[in-house]
Specification:
It is a single chain. This protein is an alpha+beta fold and about 850 residues long. The chain is built from 29 helices and 31 strands. An eight-stranded mixed sheet has the order 7-6-10-4-3-13-16-15, with no helix packed on it. A five-stranded mixed sheet has the order 18-19-20-22-21. A four-stranded antiparallel sheet has the order 11-12-17-14, with no helix packed on it. It is globular and about 90 Å long. It is an enzyme of class 3 (hydrolase).
Length: about 850
């Protein structure tokens, strides 16, 4: 699963903790790892324990003690599921008939317990020799406990048929930041009343939500084959796992499609989708590769998804295990509760990420392609071999996350892979400000807690370190061993470790213990001196060793001597909290670079002079080394050597270097001001990468009291939505009469980027005319965009007479109280809060919303709104 970037609640809480922290000492990070996350020690909370006479300072990121969550006990094995389902669109019900084949795992059984949430049960029967027999059962709306007709031994299978009606909308609402709803089965625009949205049905099973629409043993350590017959109106396409083995028209105008998957997979990977889709056909080695999109996007679907066969080929070759399943399909769906989901043979993806126009595609750097790679890699890691418990979720998600780097490296080169590495590490370190957990954690409050930046981004970076340590040949040979030894079964972290140990011949418990089973990451301070023909390199581990290990860190140090273009590389292993390494060198070095391969998952503070950083930029062997030099030298832009370096970087071959350089010139006041502005104007108009053009517009807007209206006006007509959005943002605080008409002409855009910018613009510059625009376009905004949109709406309403605000206030209050997405509820709450200065009575409404809110995380976020 690739979850949507919806962790807004977590972000609010993280930002509060970070800005409220008492900074114990000033630090100056000098690596891209630390560049975005300066070291801010958490707020200490003194706690005295009986085990230690001294006071132990407990960091704020240390989580509470949660209950142990063991792997589900295997009492019964689910072997096969056959479903016959119809849909009642008006009531949003599924009418189903399930035939389950099961057997005891080891001990004889006289009873069967199935997960089945919120059903109306019509009958429960044993199927014996072609005949059916009613069985006694108890049902508490969560589980069916069935008394079998006799005792069954472990070598005996039996069949149960259950007739039922699933009513997902009558279940108590739940969800998390990663998976915003857990009712399993979703009817989109079921009555067709919203003319802007198609009618669809789709399912989302992870973690344990498929039991909301069919009876099963809803645990990841189960595996079953399956067959699903879906009866739908004739105009709809269907999709499910496996192959379409039959499609027949019925006398009443409906059609019944039967999908069959002959290879076993976990129940949470079962899916269905129904809707009016265009299906674009592709192939890979004779297997069907299909892309399902709404008809108006069929012209660009091949461009968006077209690398899928090449990915199938690349991953199959790298892993030495061919894609094992019968087919592979990807389907774009509306109002998805996550980002994407790797259902076996049939991935679901939120439509905003992959239903793109030709103009949208201009701005796509790696979002859609990274998601496609991520979900495809799950077909091996997660589907072919499945985590036996949610505690072991990184065995699924860390690998899928790392596949994004592997594909970028293969398709676009080392710099593109380094950019992925940087972005992922930044995301983990942001989360680590307020939360640090072991990757494999057997204590958690809720299953969805596992879907975090640890399981994804930290896990991917740990795999990268493991790859760098054992080498590419051993890394991929170990993955091949792991996959082949554990195929079509459930796995845990020890099996991955054993696969690497059996391949390499080395005991790797130290690596798996410190990176998978313990929390935190290294916080390093690096310094060096030169004397008597040697470099003395000091490495200090500064992390709190009470809660975090002292790490063993194999790493490369590169030393450039004099003006040599190629350095000498030294392999060292850090094992102590404070350690000195002596590196022989014939003359004073121009640069000593710790972790020169940029592989460590760490916050690194490295003492480098301005001259060393400038040297590093011009002799860099990777994007990350260039970025580090640019980032660390930004405060010294007044120096001609530094500004010259950034001007050089604005012409770099790799777009992310150009982006960093352009951003570095924000509010530049140096001697080369006119030349810099001229260069920025050139970049804004001509750079081939839209992200860089947009940043140039943003940087020009950062110069106070300067008029770049001609640049903004030109940018409003750029082919890129990002560039147009940057121009609107630039004009938000400095609006001009000449551009207002052009901006207003964009009001009907379908671009999320433009809608974001328009909402910000109108929040400060809008009039009563835009009040109705906000209300009307609210229906077009994705949930993760509504958070900011609703707050901007509140700012607009501040300038309207109170009597004209009623409809908007009602809409915000409705969202704050009832919207299923917690980030939307928070955005609506903040929008209402902005009205308090002019409407003191709003305080009572907000107090009532806080009082009735049941989500603890959201209530904590409410307390920070002020």
């Amino acid at each position: 699963m690739k979850y949507s970037v919806l962790g807004i609640i977590s972000l609010v809480l993280t930002c509060h903790l970070t800005t409220s922290a008492q900074v114990a000492k000033s630090t100056k990070p000098t690596s891209p790892k630390a560049a975005t996350h300066k070291k801010s020690p958490p707020v200490p909370a003194p706690v005295t324990t009986s085990a230690a006479p001294a006071t132990i300072i407990v960091p704020s990121w240390l989580p509470p003690t949660n209950p142990v969550q063991p792997t589900a006990t295997m009492v019964t094995e689910l072997l096969d599921t056959r479903l016959d389902v119809k849909f009642d669109w008006s009531r949003q019900w599924l009418v189903g008939n399930a035939l389950l084949t099961l057997r005891p795992h080891f001990y004889p059984q006289t009873q069967l317990v199935l997960d089945a949430k919120g059903f109306d049960l019509k009958s429960v029967r044993a199927v014996i020799g072609g005949k059916e027999k009613n069985l006694n059962y108890n049902y508490d709306k969560r589980k069916i406990t069935i008394n079998l007709d006799r005792s069954y031994a472990r070598n005996e299978s039996y069949q149960i048929r259950i007739a039922y009606v699933a009513k997902p909308n009558e279940l108590e609402a739940g969800g998390s930041a990663a998976i915003t709803n857990n009712k399993g089965l979703y009817f989109i625009n079921p009555l067709g009343t919203d003319k802007t949205k198609p009618k669809q049905i789709w399912t989302q099973g992870e973690t344990e939500s498929n039991s909301c629409w069919f009876p099963t043993i809803d645990k990841p350590n189960q595996r079953m084959t399956q067959e699903i017959a879906m009866t739908v109106d004739g105009q709809y396409k269907t999709l499910s796992n496996g192959l379409l083995i039959s499609s027949r028209k019925n006398p009443d105008g409906t059609r019944t499609d039967i999908w069959k998957q002959t290879l076993p997979a976990a129940p949470y990977l079962t899916m269905m989708a129904v809707g009016e889709f265009a299906v674009i056909n592709d192939t890979w080695r004779g297997k069907a590769v299909d892309y399902y999109v709404e008809p108006r996007f069929q012209g660009t679907a091949k461009t968006v998804f077209g690398n899928t066969p090449a990915m199938l080929d690349f991953f199959s070759r790298k892993l030495g295990v061919d894609f094992p399943w019968e087919k592979y399909a990807q389907i774009a769906i509306r109002d998805f509760v996550s980002g994407a989901m790797e259902n076996t043979t049939a991935t679901t993806i939120r439509q905003e990420w992959v239903q793109l126009t030709k103009r949208d595609l201009i701005d796509q750097s790696y979002v859609a392609e990274g998601t496609i790679a991520h979900e495809l890699f799950h077909q091996w890691f997660g589907n072919y071999v499945t985590s036996e418990s949610w505690s072991n979720l990184p065995l699924n998600e860390s690998f899928a996350d790392y596949s994004e780097l592997l594909w970028a490296e293969h398709k676009y080169g080392a710099d593109a892979a380094a950019l992925v590495q940087q972005q992922k590490l930044t995301q983990y370190l942001t989360e680590a400000e307020s939360k640090r957990e072991p990757l494999i954690r057997y204590n958690y409050a809720a299953r969805e807690d596992m879907f975090d930046r640890h399981s994804y981004d930290k896990g991917g970076r740990v795999l990268h370190m493991l790859r760098k340590y054992v080498g590419d040949d051993a890394f991929f040979a170990s993955l091949n061993r792991y996959l082949t030894q554990n195929k079509f079964s459930a796995s845990e972290i020890a099996k991955l470790r054993l696969a690497f140990e059996e391949t390499t011949g080395e005991d790797l418990m130290w690596f798996f213990d410190q990176w998978f089973l313990r929390r935190g990451h290294p916080e390093l301070h690096i310094s060096h001196t030169y004397a008597n023909g040697q470099v003395n390199l000091r490495v200090e581990q500064l992390q709190d060793s009470t809660f975090t290990p002292i790490y063993r860190l194999p790493v490369t140090v590169s030393v450039w001597s004099g003006s040599q273009s190629q350095p000498t590389d030294y392999k060292i292993v850090v094992t102590k909290a404070n350690q000195m390494f002596t590196l022989p060198i014939s003359q004073r070095p121009s640069l000593v670079k710790f972790d020169s391969e940029s592989q460590l998952l760490a916050k690194i503070e490295e003492e480098l002079t301005q001259d060393e950083l400038v040297f590093q930029y011009y002799h860099a062997r990777s994007y990350l080394q260039k970025y580090e030099a640019i980032d660390q030298l930004r405060p010294k832009l007044g120096d001609l050597a530094v500004s010259g370096m950034l001007r050089n970087a604005m012409n770099d071959n790799f777009w992310a270097v150009r982006l960093a350089a352009v951003e570095g010139f924000r509010r530049y006041k140096g001697a080369e001001g006119n030349a810099v502005r001229k260069e920025l104007k050139r970049v804004a108009a001509t750079d081939k990468k839209s992200q860089v053009r947009a940043m140039a517009v943003t940087t020009l807007a950062s110069f106070p009291n300067e008029d770049f209206g001609d640049i903004y006006g030109t940018a409003l007509n750029d082919s890129s939505y990002l560039v147009v959005g940057a121009a609107i943002d630039a004009l938000t605080k400095n609006p001009t009469a000449s551009t207002r008409e052009t901006i207003n002409a964009l009001q009907e855009t379908t671009s999320p980027a433009l809608l974001r910018s328009l909402a910000r613009y109108y929040s400060l510059n809008g009039t009563a005319d835009q009040y109705q625009w906000f209300l009307r376009r609210m229906n077009d905004i994705a949930d993760d965009e509504l958070y900011a949109y609703l707050q901007n709406f509140g700012l607009l309403m501040q300038r309207l007479p109170p009597i004209e605000r009623d409809k908007g206030i009602q809409r915000l209050e409705s969202y704050a109280r009832t919207h299923p997405n917690i980030s939307v509820r928070l955005g609506a709450y903040r929008g209402l809060y902005s009205l308090v200065p002019s409407m003191p009575a709003m305080k009572a409404t907000l107090q009532d919303i806080r009082y009735k809110e049941k989500n603890d995380q959201l209530k904590a976020a409410y307390s920070l709104v002020q």
